[in-house]
Design goal:
With 222 residues, the chain is an alpha/beta fold. It has a single domain, classed as TIM Barrel. The chain contains ten helices and eight strands.
Length: 222
Protein backbone atom coordinates (compact mmCIF):
# COMPACT_ATOMS: atom_id res chain seq x y z
CA UNK A 1 0.00 0.00 0.00
CA UNK A 2 1.42 3.36 -1.03
CA UNK A 3 1.34 6.49 1.05
CA UNK A 4 -1.30 9.06 0.16
CA UNK A 5 0.71 10.91 -2.47
CA UNK A 6 0.50 11.28 -6.25
CA UNK A 7 1.63 8.12 -8.11
CA UNK A 8 4.77 8.19 -10.24
CA UNK A 9 2.78 7.78 -13.45
CA UNK A 10 1.10 11.15 -12.84
CA UNK A 11 4.34 13.10 -12.43
CA UNK A 12 5.33 15.76 -14.93
CA UNK A 13 7.79 17.96 -13.02
CA UNK A 14 10.29 16.49 -10.55
CA UNK A 15 12.16 19.22 -8.65
CA UNK A 16 15.43 18.35 -6.92
CA UNK A 17 16.15 20.69 -4.02
CA UNK A 18 19.92 20.47 -3.92
CA UNK A 19 22.05 22.08 -1.21
CA UNK A 20 24.99 22.82 -3.50
CA UNK A 21 22.82 24.33 -6.23
CA UNK A 22 20.76 26.29 -3.70
CA UNK A 23 23.80 27.92 -2.11
CA UNK A 24 22.69 30.03 0.85
CA UNK A 25 18.99 29.78 0.04
CA UNK A 26 16.72 28.15 2.60
CA UNK A 27 15.70 24.71 1.36
CA UNK A 28 12.24 24.86 2.90
CA UNK A 29 11.58 28.20 1.19
CA UNK A 30 12.73 26.73 -2.14
CA UNK A 31 10.52 23.71 -1.64
CA UNK A 32 7.49 25.84 -0.81
CA UNK A 33 8.10 27.96 -3.93
CA UNK A 34 8.44 24.87 -6.12
CA UNK A 35 5.22 23.43 -4.73
CA UNK A 36 3.35 26.67 -5.37
CA UNK A 37 4.72 26.62 -8.91
CA UNK A 38 3.34 23.14 -9.56
CA UNK A 39 6.07 20.61 -8.73
CA UNK A 40 4.69 17.06 -8.67
CA UNK A 41 7.46 15.59 -6.55
CA UNK A 42 10.35 16.95 -4.49
CA UNK A 43 13.70 15.27 -3.99
CA UNK A 44 16.04 16.42 -1.22
CA UNK A 45 19.69 16.07 -2.18
CA UNK A 46 22.52 17.16 0.09
CA UNK A 47 25.72 15.23 -0.53
CA UNK A 48 27.65 17.14 2.13
CA UNK A 49 25.26 16.85 5.07
CA UNK A 50 25.78 14.49 7.98
CA UNK A 51 22.95 12.11 8.74
CA UNK A 52 21.62 14.28 11.61
CA UNK A 53 21.80 17.38 9.40
CA UNK A 54 19.96 15.68 6.56
CA UNK A 55 17.31 14.38 8.92
CA UNK A 56 16.75 17.94 10.13
CA UNK A 57 16.49 19.21 6.55
CA UNK A 58 14.08 16.44 5.54
CA UNK A 59 11.92 16.98 8.62
CA UNK A 60 11.51 20.63 7.62
CA UNK A 61 10.37 19.71 4.09
CA UNK A 62 8.04 16.81 4.86
CA UNK A 63 5.12 18.89 6.23
CA UNK A 64 5.22 21.00 3.07
CA UNK A 65 5.06 18.05 0.70
CA UNK A 66 2.46 16.21 2.79
CA UNK A 67 0.20 19.28 2.84
CA UNK A 68 0.46 19.43 -0.95
CA UNK A 69 -0.11 15.69 -1.39
CA UNK A 70 3.14 15.13 -3.26
CA UNK A 71 6.03 12.76 -2.47
CA UNK A 72 9.25 13.70 -0.71
CA UNK A 73 12.12 11.60 -2.05
CA UNK A 74 15.47 11.40 -0.25
CA UNK A 75 18.59 11.09 -2.37
CA UNK A 76 20.72 8.04 -1.48
CA UNK A 77 20.12 7.93 2.27
CA UNK A 78 17.68 5.18 3.24
CA UNK A 79 18.36 5.80 6.93
CA UNK A 80 17.14 9.39 6.59
CA UNK A 81 13.95 8.27 4.88
CA UNK A 82 13.26 5.83 7.70
CA UNK A 83 14.02 8.41 10.37
CA UNK A 84 11.57 11.02 9.09
CA UNK A 85 9.00 8.86 7.30
CA UNK A 86 9.57 10.31 3.83
CA UNK A 87 7.92 8.75 0.80
CA UNK A 88 10.83 7.32 -1.13
CA UNK A 89 14.52 7.11 -1.90
CA UNK A 90 16.45 7.76 -5.10
CA UNK A 91 19.50 5.57 -5.65
CA UNK A 92 22.51 5.94 -7.92
CA UNK A 93 24.20 3.09 -9.73
CA UNK A 94 26.78 2.78 -6.95
CA UNK A 95 24.35 3.10 -4.03
CA UNK A 96 22.46 0.45 -2.10
CA UNK A 97 21.02 -2.22 -4.44
CA UNK A 98 17.32 -1.87 -5.14
CA UNK A 99 16.53 -5.29 -3.65
CA UNK A 100 18.21 -4.35 -0.36
CA UNK A 101 16.46 -1.00 -0.26
CA UNK A 102 13.13 -2.76 -0.83
CA UNK A 103 13.87 -5.18 2.00
CA UNK A 104 14.52 -2.26 4.34
CA UNK A 105 11.64 -0.06 3.19
CA UNK A 106 8.87 -2.48 2.30
CA UNK A 107 6.41 -2.11 -0.56
CA UNK A 108 4.84 1.15 0.55
CA UNK A 109 7.85 3.39 -0.15
CA UNK A 110 8.96 4.53 -3.59
CA UNK A 111 12.36 3.56 -4.98
CA UNK A 112 13.87 5.30 -7.99
CA UNK A 113 17.22 4.74 -9.63
CA UNK A 114 19.46 6.85 -11.84
CA UNK A 115 20.23 5.16 -15.16
CA UNK A 116 22.48 6.20 -18.02
CA UNK A 117 21.71 3.61 -20.70
CA UNK A 118 18.91 1.39 -21.92
CA UNK A 119 20.60 -1.61 -20.29
CA UNK A 120 20.68 0.08 -16.88
CA UNK A 121 17.06 1.18 -17.26
CA UNK A 122 15.93 -2.37 -18.01
CA UNK A 123 17.99 -3.68 -15.08
CA UNK A 124 16.37 -1.17 -12.71
CA UNK A 125 12.94 -2.29 -13.89
CA UNK A 126 13.83 -5.95 -13.39
CA UNK A 127 15.17 -5.19 -9.89
CA UNK A 128 11.87 -3.66 -8.80
CA UNK A 129 12.30 0.10 -9.07
CA UNK A 130 9.15 2.23 -9.12
CA UNK A 131 10.56 4.78 -11.54
CA UNK A 132 13.84 5.54 -13.27
CA UNK A 133 15.83 8.70 -13.77
CA UNK A 134 17.48 8.79 -17.20
CA UNK A 135 20.33 11.04 -18.24
CA UNK A 136 22.13 13.28 -18.07
CA UNK A 137 20.38 14.36 -21.25
CA UNK A 138 22.61 17.43 -21.61
CA UNK A 139 25.94 18.25 -19.92
CA UNK A 140 25.45 19.40 -16.35
CA UNK A 141 27.82 20.28 -13.47
CA UNK A 142 25.64 18.29 -11.06
CA UNK A 143 26.76 15.07 -12.83
CA UNK A 144 30.34 15.84 -13.91
CA UNK A 145 31.39 12.18 -14.01
CA UNK A 146 28.78 11.16 -16.58
CA UNK A 147 28.79 11.95 -20.29
CA UNK A 148 25.52 13.33 -21.62
CA UNK A 149 23.36 10.75 -23.39
CA UNK A 150 21.53 13.23 -25.63
CA UNK A 151 17.87 13.07 -26.64
CA UNK A 152 18.05 10.26 -29.19
CA UNK A 153 17.62 7.45 -26.65
CA UNK A 154 14.64 8.94 -24.83
CA UNK A 155 12.05 7.47 -27.17
CA UNK A 156 13.71 4.06 -27.16
CA UNK A 157 13.87 3.88 -23.37
CA UNK A 158 10.29 5.15 -23.02
CA UNK A 159 9.03 2.41 -25.35
CA UNK A 160 11.04 -0.48 -23.89
CA UNK A 161 10.80 0.29 -20.17
CA UNK A 162 7.35 0.15 -18.62
CA UNK A 163 8.28 2.22 -15.58
CA UNK A 164 7.70 5.99 -15.39
CA UNK A 165 10.69 7.73 -16.97
CA UNK A 166 12.12 10.92 -15.48
CA UNK A 167 14.58 12.66 -17.81
CA UNK A 168 17.28 14.71 -16.09
CA UNK A 169 20.42 16.68 -16.85
CA UNK A 170 20.77 20.25 -18.07
CA UNK A 171 17.02 20.70 -18.60
CA UNK A 172 15.69 24.23 -18.37
CA UNK A 173 13.34 26.53 -20.27
CA UNK A 174 15.73 26.65 -23.23
CA UNK A 175 16.14 22.88 -23.59
CA UNK A 176 12.88 21.38 -22.33
CA UNK A 177 11.25 21.56 -25.77
CA UNK A 178 13.89 19.27 -27.28
CA UNK A 179 13.38 16.72 -24.49
CA UNK A 180 9.60 16.72 -24.89
CA UNK A 181 9.87 16.39 -28.68
CA UNK A 182 12.07 13.32 -28.14
CA UNK A 183 9.30 11.59 -26.19
CA UNK A 184 9.75 12.61 -22.56
CA UNK A 185 6.72 13.17 -20.36
CA UNK A 186 8.36 13.91 -17.00
CA UNK A 187 11.54 15.89 -16.40
CA UNK A 188 13.68 16.57 -13.34
CA UNK A 189 15.35 19.92 -12.78
CA UNK A 190 17.89 21.22 -10.30
CA UNK A 191 19.52 24.53 -11.18
CA UNK A 192 16.56 25.67 -13.28
CA UNK A 193 14.65 26.10 -10.01
CA UNK A 194 17.28 26.24 -7.27
CA UNK A 195 19.20 29.06 -8.95
CA UNK A 196 16.29 30.88 -10.55
CA UNK A 197 15.74 34.50 -9.58
CA UNK A 198 12.11 33.57 -8.90
CA UNK A 199 11.91 29.82 -8.17
CA UNK A 200 8.12 29.79 -8.08
CA UNK A 201 7.81 31.49 -11.47
CA UNK A 202 10.52 29.25 -12.94
CA UNK A 203 8.70 26.14 -11.72
CA UNK A 204 5.39 27.40 -13.07
CA UNK A 205 6.89 28.09 -16.51
CA UNK A 206 8.40 24.60 -16.72
CA UNK A 207 5.16 22.97 -15.59
CA UNK A 208 3.27 24.94 -18.26
CA UNK A 209 5.56 23.49 -20.95
CA UNK A 210 4.97 19.97 -19.66
CA UNK A 211 1.21 20.35 -19.31
CA UNK A 212 0.89 21.77 -22.82
CA UNK A 213 2.94 18.87 -24.17
CA UNK A 214 0.64 16.34 -22.53
CA UNK A 215 -2.47 18.13 -23.82
CA UNK A 216 -1.06 18.20 -27.35
CA UNK A 217 -0.19 14.52 -27.12
CA UNK A 218 -3.72 13.68 -26.00
CA UNK A 219 -5.10 15.83 -28.80
CA UNK A 220 -3.17 13.73 -31.32
CA UNK A 221 -4.47 10.46 -29.90
CA UNK A 222 -6.84 8.52 -32.15
Amino acid sequence: MRLNVAPCSDWLLYVIVDRTAAGTRNLADLTAAAIRGGADVIQLRDKTASTPQLIEEAAALLPLTRSAGIPLIINDRVEVLRAVGADGVHLGQDDLPIAEARRLLGSERLIGQSTHSLEQALAAEAAGADYIGFGPIFPTPTKPDYASVGTALIGTVAKQVRLPLVCIGGIDRTTIGHVLEAGARCVAVVRAVCRAEDPEAATRALKRHLTQSVLQSCGNCP
